[in-house]
Amino acid sequence: MKGQARSRRGEGRIAERWSVKMAMAAAAVKFWGRSRGLGRAGLPLLRLLAARGLARSHPHRWQRQQHFSSLDDKPQFPGASAEFIDKLEFIQPNVISGIPIYRVMDRQGQIINPSEDPHLPQEKVLKFYKSMTLLNTMDRILYESQRQGRISFYMTNYGEEGTHVGSAAALDDTDLVFGQYREAGVLIYRDYPLELFMAQCYGNVSDLGKGRQMPVHYGCRERHFVTISSPLATQIPQAVGAAYAAKRANANRVVICYFGEGAASEGDAHAGFNFAATLECPIIFFCRNNGYAISTPTSEQYRGDGIAARGPGYGILSIRVDGNDVFAVYNATKEARRRAVAENQPFLIEAMTYRIGHHSTSDDSSAYRSVDEVNYWDKQDHPISRLRHYLQSRGWWDDEQEKAWRKQSRKKVMEAFEQAERKLKPNPNLIFSDVYQEMPAQLRKQQESLARHLQTYGEHYPLDHFEK
Amino acid sequence: KDRVFNTPLCEQGIVGFGIGIAVTGATAIAEIQFADYIFPAFDQIVNEAAKYRYRSGDLFNCGSLTIRSPWGCVGHGALYHSQSPEAFFAHCPGIKVVVPRSPFQAKGLLLSCIEDKNPCIFFEPKILYRAAVILCLFSSFFQVHVIREVAAMAQEKLGVSCEVIDLRTIIPWDVDTVCKTVTCQAPLSMGFSRREYWKCFLQAFSSHVRHCFLSNGQCSKLWLNRGR
């Protein structure tokens, strides 16, 4: 005979289970209540509850449930606020005439609707122009330097300068920026020195990133530009978290998150949009829709109406703008920033533009698109040309100044470039630090092992190029 | 409500969001409901969180991020509520992975993870989740009344929760019930003495209990718990 010890807790547990069930049953009735219908499942459910003792304890309520059905026919689903419809109809996605594209200037740089002109002062508009052209010049020189084997890799920003500068100009200096990799113009606008762009591309001792990443993976704490990482769209939910923290800190700061239309296909993008809306974060999602994700055209990236059309699906206020119109980008970002901070909600700006350059120095885009197509954008609809026309029509710029500035900007870039080339690379010890905040013992051992190795075999390594 | 809240159901979003909070310097504790579901967040953990400080040259980091997640088997969880995925993360420099062996350890280690200046994953063995029965008192016949009074006093005076088990029979006695409680880490106190039983229970005090009991010269091996 086996002993059966009875734990007192065991008894309590059984009793507990019953009371939980009854509480749940009572809660269910209370939730559905008098005025709400339970539908066809309701009566069997009620009978079940009655059988479990609910009827005995609440006979009146059970009686009341039977007379609810015909009186109140509105939908009661917690998941949607909508009316019933008795016609079978699928909602047609509108891709033939999609969300319209907001612009301020025409392709010749003339203001279309004067009330939309931001009336920016000459100094500011000149800064827009000089930032975009300096970026363009830097791109040309660094692209060339990669072809010559001086740096390992580069990505140009041709055609998208307007998206960077227009949006950066509309932000406060302390607004946090999460980028993807084609937003160098934001850093240029924030006066990131050419020396540091070059340092990162060359991976020399001056690089704030300590020479660890591929070129164009810029970062700057001072200028609130989070270091770029290669995986796509990973920055999107991170930007949302940062915005949430800014909201809690009452910082009156917005976070802006840049990404391309290709990265918008990533799961992280969906995650970011949904979190931003549900958690009410002051964030601007800025999508650079430039027509290609490397060789994948937008027709193979999505079937809906671009990225702007997705915003309302998440409950996000959205707009589509002409990304090659720096004033349109500016206006949209300015207003989005004002409201995001004031109302603690996300905004989605889809800036339509065109990637004039190759995806990177590892790409030859003539393999998947025509030269004519590229030339159209380069010659007929370029953010720099359009702004120059605007400047010239205002009398704020002329050919003389253009020539002088081209020479001056090129000189500045070349100087920084030549200096960067001459600098040493970072100390090999920096391979091991910053993996953790404190260097763990096994990394220290590896560091010492490398040091010993270099002592013995140093002649086989280009140690002269590295800082001691 | 703004400090402890629900998010949409998306692990990659949860971890990414947590990283973003940590980047601003605030403390973030992200929960993944079961370790079995941590995989959508693998990219954010391995490619982002672990590498944030290194790749930015220490300009940015997400050290104030802790990810906590229920871990390990409980017996009925099957494929998707039982996994121990720590090995996937063990090869990723830049994060710390922590698994406590007892509720007491869990408290201290979780606090350490939160304070640590590196992103940490804190796996919480589900087998440790139970109501706080701190002490098990075994007894038989009238000693049960005494023990019950002791339990009440311990609760009142010391705030210690006790489970009282009335064995009812001495031989044969309910090995299973006692073992179930013993293997849940509660220290023991005996209401009757018999040398064989003392030996077992003294063994059971050790937090690395593997065998549970020598009874009448027989050895009954109960749970083999690795790392408990």
What does this structure look like?
The complex is a heterodimer of chains A (468) and B (228). Chain A has 468 residues and is α/β, with parallel strands linked by helices. Chain A is built from 16 helices and ten strands. In chain A, strand 7 and strand 8 (296-297) form a beta hairpin. In chain A, helix 6 (161-169) crosses helix 12 (326-343), helix 8 crosses helix 15 and helix 9 (235-248) packs parallel to helix 10 (267-278). Mean pLDDT of chain A is 89; it is low at 1-23 and 25-66. Chain B is α/β, with parallel strands linked by helices and 228 residues long. Chain B folds into two domains: 11-128, Thiamin diphosphate (ThDP)-binding fold, Pyr/PP domains (Rossmann fold, 3-Layer(aba) Sandwich), CATH 3.40.50.970; 174-221, no CATH class. Helices cover 34% and strands 16% of the residues of chain B. Chain B is built from eight helices and nine strands. In chain B, the strands form three sheets. Chain B has a four-stranded parallel beta sheet, with helices on both faces. A three-stranded parallel beta sheet of chain B has the order 6-5-7, sandwiched between helices. In chain B, helix 6 links the parallel strand 5 (135-139) and strand 6 (162-166). Chain B: Its EC number is 1.2.4.4. Chain B: Pfam families: Transket_pyr, Transketolase_C. Chain B: It is an enzyme of class 1 (oxidoreductase). Chain B: One of its GO terms (biological process) is branched-chain amino acid catabolic process.
- The first-level CATH class of the largest domain in chain B is given as Alpha Beta
Listing every helix as H and every strand as E from the N terminus to the C terminus, the arrangement of chain B reads: HEHHEHEHEEHEHEHEE
CATH topology of the largest domain in chain B, by name, is: Rossmann fold
Number of helices of chain A: 16
Question: Which architecture of the largest domain in chain B per CATH?
Answer: 3-Layer(aba) Sandwich
Protein name (chain B): 3-methyl-2-oxobutanoate dehydrogenase (2-methylpropanoyl-transferring)
Catalytic activity (chain B): N(6)-[(R)-lipoyl]-L-lysyl-[protein] + 3-methyl-2-oxobutanoate + H(+) = N(6)-[(R)-S(8)-2-methylpropanoyldihydrolipoyl]-L-lysyl-[protein] + CO2
GO biological process, one term (chain B): branched-chain amino acid catabolic process
Keywords (chain B): Oxidoreductase
